[in-house]
Amino acid sequence: MSVKALSVRFPEALYDRxxxxxxxxxxxxxxxxxxxxxxxxxxxxxxxxxxxxxLLGSDPEMSDVSYAFAAQSKVALNE
Length: 79
Prior knowledge:
It is built from three helices and no strands. The model has no long low-confidence stretch (mean pLDDT about 85). By secondary structure, the chain is mostly helical. It starts with 11 loop residues before the first helix and ends with a helix. The chain is elongated. It has one domain (about 10-75).
């Protein structure tokens, strides 16, 4: 897996709270931030799938059944 570096600026209070949370969990601050970003990206992707699936079902004339089954499978199996 390749790794890319990113510089992020935090307000001091948020940085201190995040560092404290990481210490409590016994992980590095970098890992805490990676987990938070991954969770945010996953939530966004799930919302996009849900919105697309909802839109697909809103107009029966424009619905592609095979696509609907593939989208439904992707959502149900968390692929």
